[in-house]
Design goal:
The protein is of the alpha/beta class. Helices cover 27% and strands 25% of the residues. Strands 7-8-6-18-19-20-17-21 form an eight-stranded mixed beta sheet, sandwiched between helices.
């Protein structure tokens, strides 16, 4: 657990967003001492970009970057730009991709693997059709393939039930856990301070959070605090986010392809997303961990601190059934590994990036909803500008959107 809760605010109120005026931080552009809580994809990149903008930054995490309970753990994540009609994410993915490549070159570290992502379109293909013009606007290369061409190019896939295919050529996968470690190391090398401690939120007085209490008994005071605590964010701020961050249990499986059969590694097969009712996705090769397969449908609610991380019999059976259907040659492939992670789901699957409505020097960054990792550097760049310049958050990510939606439903 990264942080204990903000108990001094009205914890009995569970409305999505308290209807109060938003206080502004004093001297927004001059705040220089910043504490970032959470060293995952959002927090680590935010700390790094704040440091690069001249702030004095302390990054804290109770379990370490990409630890086994964190949402950023695991070997790989897909990076792609297809988001249906949600152009804001396509643009953000393009910016993130540029920053991944830029920092790779800077650090001489391989984190982005351009193997492509193959989308398998079902009968209802509106999501993919809406994405194509936005991919073009973002200058992300793609190819729409008729079913016959896709089946000829990828004979190791059973295309039953597939209408056509979309290949994102600039997409691929990221080395996830390793990236979190590399970002933290870079942050330290560039002058930041990293402390592996549990944090207790400070009291709020005059619309400002006071010093944090750390698990070693010390206090840490800062001008601004950024909480990027993944699935724990709702527990830490129950009055604001208690109903807006819902951790869900997600299962991931890895299978052993036949030795020397390169049809199921990244030299012959891109990452793939089967965009039908069952919503499975996978990564071939997967940094020598095996053929990765997982279901993107949201699982049951999950406690990231105490939840059991053994795979379920139902999950194992469903994954094996899908593997045999879509990749028949792997129907008897041995299971190498199974993992349980979590998404931190927001109601609309959009990110939450906003100030705390009662503490102007507190920023809340979360709601990754299973698609956040790839955006890490773009989020870090964005949040660093918001925190140091005191700008208003993008309405797509602001807390006020939940009040608007509630009003629209009532009316």
């Amino acid at each position: 657990m990264l942080v204990t809760g903000l108990n001094n605010l009205d914890a009995e109120s569970h409305e999505a967003t308290p209807q109060i005026s938003r206080p502004r931080p004093p001297g927004a552009g001059s705040c220089r001492r910043i504490a970032v809580i959470g060293a995952g994809a959002f927090g680590g990149w935010t700390a790094l970009y704040l440091q690069r903008r001249g702030a004095k930054v302390t990054l804290l995490d109770g379990g370490g970057p990409a630890n086994s309970r964190a949402s950023s753990f695991g070997e790989t994540r897909i990076i792609r730009g297809t988001y249906g009609p949600k152009g804001i994410y396509t643009k953000m993915a393009a910016r993130a991709l540029h920053l991944w490549k830029e920092n790779e070159a800077r650090w001489r570290q391989k984190l982005y693997h351009r193997i492509g992502v193959l989308w398998l379109a079902a009968a209802d293909d509106r999501f993919l059709k809406a994405a194509m013009p936005l991919l073009g606007e973002a200058k992300l290369a793609f190819e729409a393939m008729p079913l016959e061409d896709a089946a000829k190019r990828y004979p190791q896939i059973n295309f039953e039930g597939v209408k056509w295919a979309l290949l994102e050529k600039d997409a691929g996968y990221l080395s996830a856990r390793r990236a979190c470690h590399v970002v933290t190391d870079a942050f330290i090398a560039e002058g930041g301070e990293y402390r592996e401690l549990v944090v207790e939120t400070g009291a709020v007085a005059n619309a400002q959070m006071q010093a944090l209490t750390l698990s070693d008994g010390t206090k840490l005071a800062a001008d601004q605090y950024v909480f990027a605590c993944g699935p724990w964010l709702g527990k830490i701020f129950p009055d604001v986010l208690g109903k807006l961050i819902r951790p869900t249990r997600q299962e991931i499986f890895f299978y052993q392809a036949p030795a020397d059969d390169h049809r199921f590694d990244e030299t012959s097969l891109p990452a793939w997303i089967d965009y039908n009712a069952r919503r499975y996705y996978g990564i071939p090769g997967n940094a020598w961990r095996g053929f990765k397969l997982a279901c993107d449908l949201r699982g049951p609610e999950f406690d990231p601190t105490s939840g059991d991380r053994l795979p379920s019999a139902e999950g194992l059976m469903a994954a094996r059934e899908f593997l045999a259907f879509r990749f028949p040659l792997l129907k008897d492939a041995p299971t190498l590994e199974a993992q349980v992670c979590q998404y931190e789901q927001s109601p609309d699957e959009d990110f939450i990036i906003d100030q705390h409505p009662s503490a102007a020097n507190v920023w809340l960054v979360g709601g990754g909803s299973g698609h956040g990792f790839k955006h890490g550097p773009a989020i870090g760049e964005m949040v660093s500008e918001l925190v140091l310049a005191g700008k208003e958050p993008d309405p797509h990510f602001a807390l006020a959107r939940f009040s608007r939606k509630k009003t629209e439903v009532r009316s």
